[in-house]
Every structure is written in structure tokens, then in C-alpha cells.
Write a structure and sequence with these properties.
Strand 4, helix 4 and strand 5 form a beta-alpha-beta unit. The protein starts with a helix and ends with a helix. It is built from twelve helices and nine strands. By secondary structure, the chain is of the alpha/beta class. It has a domain of 221 residues: Rossmann fold (3-Layer(aba) Sandwich), CATH 3.40.50. The strands form two sheets. A seven-stranded parallel sheet has the order 3-2-1-4-5-6-9, sandwiched between helices. Strands 7-8 form a two-stranded parallel ribbon. The relative contact order is 0.14. It is 43% helix and 12% strand.
């Protein structure tokens, strides 16, 4: 498809969003409502007086009946997933991830195709590509190399969706984001935010890495571009803010946004890794000291997408949200 045709937007008329109460889901719903889109939220516990606009999905499984939610829907945005669980203690983590991220996704996509849904947008993860980069950023064309149960389950879900799309004609679009931050963020980013806000000394001044990040507002815009743009059909895209930073630079920017002074201390990376291994925190140390960069040029080139928010704007918005929660 030539570039002119790629920019012709065909707005999804009726959208079903799963995981609508989550971090990304809430931001997407707010933006879709601001754009006056017709939408239906899939929620575990919708309000009883939702006038039929919400669907009670419960805990999604391979047996969930989606048909009432799919009536007249032409686009599904599938955000619901089993994400990283802190202090994972499941003896068979991969089975637990597959149950929701693969089998429940398969069930939804099969029912969506049968109901005549035109497009299915799936939020995957850069973990499908792998855990770290060296000289070159990840691209959509790289061979997948997931390293953990979550990444493996997301890759398997992508494969399932591509097969369903090929068999049914439903248009599959896959987005792989890196770490997503913004108001409402949880997990590792929130813990880093809290540490910087309380002035904790962080032995990361000597870290020399590069990491891609993604502000939730930019992710929402990318999802909508994938919903609407004909050129996205059948594609897999990587998406980021486009401003790769080192961990020390990120901490300094966070401190500025929070109105604090960063407390960065020098420490050799080898010593950091050794200490992390002793404490059972090797994965956390890798995220802070290793590099993970992505190339989102295909998304920009083919869909005409550009990040609406800079890294500084995203961090400032996140800091405002954090301060409001502390008052």
C-alpha cells in the first residue's frame, strides 16, 4: 500500500476493550470517550446500572462466552492479560500465563472472528523479542527470543492470533511496547518513582546503558492508529517514545519532575550484579543496568504515527499524579 493510502483513516465504529479497568485500559477508554467513539468495556465487576455499555467478563478464561459483548462490534482491543506477578510462587508459571494469555486470547479471537469483527488489536510485549539489546535496537523483523514465562506466553498468543487471522480474514494488529509509564503506573517504575521521591541513595551513577520507554498517552495514540489505519492490517509494530535514556539520566529527569535532588552514587556494574545475585534480584538489576532499545520507525512510517508527548512531558505528568496521591 502506498503512503498516501496508508494515511486514510477508517475509524472503528464500535469498539470492545478488554482489560478496561487496568492501567492502559483506563487511559484508552478516557481517550476514546474524548473522541466520542462508541465503545464497550469488558470488566470483571461492572456497575449494575451500566445500561448495557459494560460487559461482565469475570476472570477471563478459555470458556468465557463473549457473544453478548461482540454484538455489532467491528474492532476488539485486547489488553487483558496475566502480567508480571511480584514474588511469583506458582510452581508452573508458564502454565498459569498460558491459561490467560494464550488460551483465553484464543477463545476471544475465535468468537470475535465468528461474530464478524473486522480488526483485532493485541497488546503484546517487547519481551517477545527478548530481554536486552547490544549494538542494535529490536525491530519487528527480529527473530523472537522470549526469555521468561510471560514473554513466551505473549509470543504464543501472537502466533495463535496470526493463525486465526489467516483462517478467518479478521485483521490482526500486534503492538509490542517496552516499559510503559504514566499516571496510575505500578510495578517497577512506581518503586523507582517512590525511591527517588523519598531521596533514597541509588548506587546507579556509573551505569552506562540505554533503554526505551513509552508514556501511556503515546501508547493510547498508537493503539488508536492501529485500530483505524488500513495499512496496519496484519502487521506487528514496536512502539516507544523515541527518546532512549540511561538509567542515571532517567533518575535525574524523575527527580527534576518530582522537585527533588537525585542521590546517585557511583558503583561498578559488576559489583551491582554480584550483590543483586546474592539478594535474588538479578532480573531487577538487569532492568536497571542493561540496555533495551527498540526501533519504532515502521509504525511511524507506515501509519504516520508520532508520539504526542515527549519523555519530559510524560515524566512531569507522572510526577503530578504521584504528588496528588501523596496529598
Amino acid at each position: 500500500m502506498d503512503s498516501a493510502k496508508a494515511q486514510i483513516m477508517t475509524k472503528a465504529q464500535n469498539v470492545l476493550v478488554t482489560g478496561a479497568a487496568g492501567f492502559v485500559g483506563q487511559a484508552l477508554i478516557a481517550e476514546l470517550r474524548a473522541r466520542r467513539r462508541s465503545l464497550r468495556r469488558a470488566l470483571r465487576n461492572p456497575a449494575p446500572d451500566n445500561n448495557g455499555s459494560d460487559f461482565d467478563s469475570g476472570n477471563i478464561t478459555a470458556d468465557t462466552d463473549w457473544q453478548p459483548a461482540l454484538t455489532a462490534v467491528d474492532c476488539v482491543v485486547h489488553l487483558a492479560a496475566r502480567t508480571h506477578v511480584l514474588h511469583e510462587n506458582n510452581a508452573d508459571a508458564l502454565t498459569a500465563y498460558r491459561r490467560i494469555n494464550v488460551e483465553a486470547t484464543r477463545n476471544l479471537a475465535q468468537q470475535a472472528a465468528a461474530a464478524g469483527v473486522r480488526r483485532f488489536v493485541f497488546l503484546s510485549s517487547i519481551k517477545v523479542n527478548g530481554e536486552s539489546t547490544a549494538e542494535h535496537p529490536y525491530t519487528p523483523d527480529d527473530a523472537p527470543q522470549p526469555q521468561d514465562a510471560y514473554g513466551i506466553s505473549k509470543r504464543e498468543a501472537e502466533d495463535v492470533l496470526r493463525r486465526i487471522g489467516a483462517e478467518s480474514g479478521m485483521e490482526i494488529v500486534i503492538l509490542r511496547p517496552p516499559l510503559v509509564y504514566g499516571p496510575g503506573v505500578k510495578g517497577n517504575f512506581l518503586r523507582l518513582l517512590q525511591a527517588v521521591a523519598r531521596g533514597a541513595p541509588l548506587p546507579l551513577a556509573s551505569v552506562n546503558n540505554r533503554r526505551s520507554l513509552l508514556y501511556v498517552g503515546n501508547l493510547v495514540d498508537a493503539i488508536i492508529a492501529c485500530m483505524d489505519t488500513p495499512a496496519a492490517a496484519g502487521k506487528t509494530y514496536l512502539v516507544s517514545d523515541g527518546e532512549d535514556v540511561s538509567t542515571p539520566v532517567l533518575i535525574r529527569k524523575l527527580a527534576t519532575a518530582l522537585g527533588r535532588s537525585p542521590r546517585l552514587l557511583p558503583c561498578p556494574s559488576a559489583l551491582l550484579h554480584f550483590g543483586a545475585i546474592l539478594l535474588g534480584k538479578r532480573a531487577a538489576a538487569m532492568r536497571l543496568t542493561g540496555s533495551l532499545t527498540i526501533d519504532s520507525s515502521a509504525l511511524r512510517r507506515e501509519l504516520g504515527w508520532q508520539p504526542r508527548y515527549s519523555l519530559d512531558q510524560g515524566l512531569n505528568a507522572t510526577a503530578r499524579w504521584y504528588h496528588q496521591g501523596q496529598n
